[in-house]
Specification:
single chain, mainly alpha, two-stranded antiparallel sheet, 2 strands, elongated
């Protein structure tokens, strides 16, 4: 019979894995025409990253305090729930314990940082940005617009080949010539501007299709960073002799892989 603490940690890990898997799948599919998927992805990812970050800090406390987990006040006032602070604490743990990361030693790449910042701001209040605008509250920033400007545009510029960019532009131009005069488009872009031309809608679609695999890859790299840290802390915690620590490495195993594997799959919500 497993201990109550073991069962609780194992269930927390399974829930967190499923949230991260759902978010990693959704973030690949979101575009200007399906903005709700952005909010689904941001909700799943921000929740999942916060939870796996807390698991890491809980294990760090467990190791330093002879097998004792932090109490509620420590969780609330020291660990808290801010993704940015959880990341800063993770760097301190890696340094303190001289952990050698097999993949990324940090998430200081500008794209990773933009993703973390947007998800952190979403969790802190941007998830209500639409309602805030309607009720006249001080509006938080628009997370979809921030994602487009600070994640998708840099990915498109740095990861998509010149040849593919030209093909996207040419395809959009041809479609505009062929059906633009008798096709009506009514949409808004990720940044809130109106899309009423077939050519622009086609270009936006082509751009999203091109960056989708890269935005998913970078997000999976972030998840893998936390999974690798959690796995390292798991083995150290197990050395205390406690039977409360589950094999987190097994729960999160699909996320502990090379980039080459990440590129082979589009869906992560059924792993």
């Amino acid at each position: 019979m497993f201990a109550e603490t073991f069962n609780a940690l194992n269930k927390e890990a399974q829930f967190t894995k499923e949230m991260l898997g759902a978010g990693a799948t959704q973030i690949r599919n979101a575009n200007y025409a399906t903005k709700g998927i952005y909010f689904q992805a941001f909700t799943s990812l921000s929740t999942g990253l916060e939870r796996i970050g807390k698991l890491c800090l809980m294990l760090d406390h467990f190791i330093d305090h002879s097998g004792l987990f932090p109490d509620f006040n420590y969780m609330k006032n020291v660990i808290c729930h801010k993704i940015g602070m959880l990341y800063e604490n993770s760097l301190a743990i890696i340094s303190k314990r001289s952990i050698r990361m097999e993949f990324l030693p940090n998430l200081n790449d500008p794209i990773h940082q933009s993703m973390l910042r947007i998800l952190a701001e979403f969790a802190q209040g941007d998830r209500y940005s639409n309602i805030d605008l309607v009720v006249g509250s001080k509006r938080s920033s628009d997370p979809i617009s921030a994602w487009f400007n600070d994640v998708d545009v840099p990915l498109f510029e740095s990861c998509v080949s010149k040849k593919k960019k030209e093909r996207i532009l040419n395809n959009a131009t041809v479609i505009g010539i062929m059906i633009g005069s008798h096709t009506k488009v009514i949409h808004t872009s990720e940044t809130g501007s109106e899309i009423n031309e077939v050519e622009e809608a086609s270009y936006r679609t082509g751009m999203q299709t091109a960056v989708a695999p890269y935005r998913q890859l970078y997000m999976l790299q972030i998840i893998r960073y936390w999974v690798e840290l959690l796995s390292s802390l798991q083995y150290t915690a197990m050395q205390t002799g406690s039977e409360d620590i589950p094999f987190f490495s097994e729960v999160f195993a699909p996320f502990y892989n090379e980039d080459s594997y990440f590129r082979t799959r589009k869906t992560w919500d059924t792993i």
